[in-house]
Design goal:
alpha/beta, Aspartate Aminotransferase, domain 2, 504 residues, transferase (chains A, B), 15 helices, homodimer, seven-stranded mixed beta sheet, globular, PyrdxlP-dep_Trfase_major (chains A, B), 2 domains
């Protein structure tokens, strides 16, 4: 395996840094802690005796949606001494900007066990949510004359993170398909865009510095890039020398294939042979990190969808030169993520790890296994919701009348629905307003029928460039309280399409 | 009282915004939540049933440094329904970027009760620690050609927040004095600097946009600006039209005067008439907000020193136009502060408020009273530590031999000590290296004697401009475990000064 030291990475990747990055220098007035026996009177840190809270006790459910007051579950206790390696006297104190070491160790082990990078010389840095990570990444990389490529439909707030720098965002065409080999970024068009940049539609811009991709269970399309496509994208990245920013909030929520004959079939709940190892080896799609021989991939993971959004806790994986730049950005802005959030995550994961350890202090590997067990439980519930939703959608009159298609996602929290236009309804005109108008009308019909969805065109990087593909709506299966609410919502969707088409 | 609407504030303060501020626009793909009866399938928010933690229980001490397992204290319980207005199903979810409303209401009431601004049209915005608040404020205000004034000694990491924008930081001379009327920014020199800008040492820079001041218990000098000085600074701010950024992490830690005849006297512990109201009216120094008829003051408060640094939670008070810009900055970067941290603060303060309320649901005023009671307990411990430290310092041989002075602070966590140079030891030369060299030697002597302190010159905005004032060291009384450690540290300090001067 190729090994990169810091100097090599610096030489290789300095040219990617924004000009503003050079201005980021924390003015430090303190020195490292003194040796033993020296009384510390330097840091303006209040002794933990001043903290009003001296114990925190958590109850952890054994399953998502578990009944209150169930006798199951775990109890987690934290005080000034527990957990030993991250007691409250530490997590409630000023802590390292990059995150507390036990949590970093856990994150590194996650990466090693699941997405072992193809090089040595990588590291992780905790951040305060993926939005925080994203804007820091683009602060490090972008100036006003930088260009960033994004999938033509994307989590559009990320566009703001790039535009904050004054930089340009350009869309990359996708294939919206049920075929796993075809899903996601259109490789030929990506290659063509870059090979012929100087005569293409963006020739007035600098060639792209980075590609931002939500590669698994893409938001909003639900598409997942196959390994073959990932390899081709990587080759293109090498040829044109850009950085791949891989955002993966949903990858762990991977769906077994839907079976129309047995709609409620759920391997997470039915398949006794589905161990953690099988989940990792056969379900989870390998990150770009696993083919990253150049150290050009930045991967984002977050605890928002897998634990709770209110934590505002996430981490970035990249080569050590780039993680150091991201860390440096945090040093002069947010400093450390919430210590309370880090403690809640670490202590719970540690408790989950105890079940896989004969030792009182579980190894980091045990903690990864324990956490993956939890993730499989969450994924099992999302797979169930996917089943409920598909069954309900396919049973609607609207579907049976052929009014809409379901673009089956392979992972995540979103399902996209595409209206089936009567022949010639949308001619391939240069006037994109027609499609957005029609989609607005569909939205109104759906709202009137009692469901709120997201319009795909609202998540386009450039609606004009996506007029041929933006005719879909995105629904989420994450927020509903129960199966009944999902079923009712799907009935209303079917109705909404009927209402919409009856007006056309 | 003057009342400013948003348009007036926008017209008045748009000119203060950085050019980059215009690039800050969150790309939103979602609409407001639908009306009742419409099923929400839009937001990618996981149902709270997916959260692994369903209850959090806290133990709150009744006093700082309370014995473990004391029967005193408060128990705080949080679950999916409690506290009613901020249950875990809310605080662990995606929440408003500006902070959750109950906490914002509390912060507003704090400001109203303690530092009622001199105008209507202000608001608060939660932020993720003061460093986070600071960099956002300077992102909103500064470009590369902006100038910011700071007290000549300051919390130097803030310099990084300004330099991140490429902007310039210039020092404002201070008076380092025991006299409360003289402490802090030298008004005459500030007026002279600005009145004669175009012929002064910074004439090549734009006139300052803002003054950053830690006005009470200044870090590192411990100085507090008198009300008279605050009024004069405000007049100068009006004359030269700059914004005042008032950072107040320590103001609540206000010290009753030290009594050499009764060194252990502590009004927080001894004075039965010291009510919350008396503390607010007679101890706390009024913020610049209370004289801010123009709406030109931005005030920062933080929970770091008063609750715990690991929360990463703070808030900003300013006119609505400026809080909206700071909010907007958060929308495209960090988004909301940690919901867990907000829940820990709110639920504890609410519980403290119950003691001042006959209702089961305490009013916001009761919560402010409860919180202020806690702050007085914290301040009482800092006052005690100040007493212990002063007594110990004054009893050292080094002090009795006249080797150093103690610059008595009026609030906060820091005490500064100044070596008493033999006659002519430091001539007023242009070579500032002499003073920094001597201070480095003092530092070595102190380290050898077993204490680590902070050198004042390391916290100078511009050491060259502060060579006449930078000969002090800063010690903190915050971090030590107990009185004995403080006493031992002070003995070592006395020794350190003896060692230093014996070598000269």
């Amino acid at each position: 395996m190729v090994k990169y030291d810091f100097e090599t990475l610096r030489n290789r990747y300095s040219s990617f840094l924004s000009r503003r990055d050079a201005a980021k220098q924390l003015v430090k007035f303190w020195d490292n802690p003194p040796g033993p026996g020296v009384i510390e009177l330097a840091g303006g840190m209040p002794n933990s005796g001043f903290f009003p809270v001296d114990t925190i006790d958590l109850h952890v459910v054994s399953q998502p949606f578990e009944e209150r007051h169930s006798q199951n579950g775990l109890k987690v206790h934290m005080d000034k001494n527990e957990p030993k390696e991250m007691p409250l006297s530490m997590s409630l104190q000023y802590t390292n900007t990059e995150g507390m070491e036990p949590l970093l160790s856990f994150a590194r082990k996650m990466v090693e066990c699941i997405n072992q990078p193809a090089y040595e010389g990588w590291d992780v840095c905790m951040t305060s949510g993926s939005s925080d990570a994203m804007y820091k990444i683009f602060e490090v990389l972008c100036d006003e004359d930088s260009t960033v490529m994004m999938e033509e439909f994307t989590f559009s707030p990320v566009i703001s993170n790039v535009k904050l720098q004054g930089a340009n965002v350009i869309p990359v065409k996708m294939q919206l398909s049920a075929n796993p080999e075809e899903q996601g970024i259109d490789i030929d068009r990506l290659a063509d865009l870059l090979d012929n940049w100087s005569v293409g539609p963006y020739k007035h811009l600098n060639k792209p510095k980075a590609l931002y991709t939500v590669s698994t269970g893409q938001n909003p399309t639900g598409m997942t890039l196959s390994l073959a496509k990932r390899n081709r994208i990587y080759e293109i990245a090498q040829k044109h020398d850009f950085i791949i920013v891989e955002d993966d909030p949903y990858g762990y929520l991977f769906f077994p294939p839907y079976d129309t004959k047995e709609p409620m079939k759920n391997a997470y709940w039915d398949d006794k042979s589905l161990t953690v190892q099988k989940y990792v080896d056969e379900y989870l799609v390998k990150s770009f990190l696993t083919i990253d021989t150049d150290a050009r991939v930045i991967r984002l993971e977050t605890f928002s969808k897998l634990y709770a959004p209110g934590l505002r806790l996430s981490f970035v994986v990249a080569n050590k030169f780039l993680t150091e730049r991201i860390f440096n950005m945090s040093e002069v802005t947010t400093r450390a993520p919430s210590g309370v959030s880090q403690a809640l995550v670490y202590s719970v994961i540690k408790e989950m790890g105890k079940r896989h350890s004969s030792e009182p202090e579980p190894s980091v590997e045990s903690m990864v296994t324990g956490w993956l067990e939890w993730l499989m439980k969450v994924a099992g519930h999302y797979a169930h919701r996917r089943n409920i939703a598909f069954k309900a959608l396919y049973e609607t009159e609207g579907y049976k009348e052929g009014l809409f298609q379901v673009m089956e996602p392979s992972a995540g929290m979103f399902i996209d629905l595409k209206p089936c236009w009567p022949q010639g309804e949308l001619s391939r005109s240069d006037h994109y307003d027609l499609i957005t108008e029609k989609m607005d009308q569909l939205n109104q019909s759906l709202l009137k029928s009692g469901v709120q969805v997201v319009l795909g065109y609202r998540m386009a990087v450039d609606v004009k460039a996506s007029k041929d593909t933006c005719d879909f709506v995105r629904i989420t299966i994450a927020y509903a309280n129960d199966d009944a609410q999902i079923i009712e919502a799907c009935h209303r969707i079917g109705k909404g399409f009927q209402v919409f088409f009856s007006r056309m």
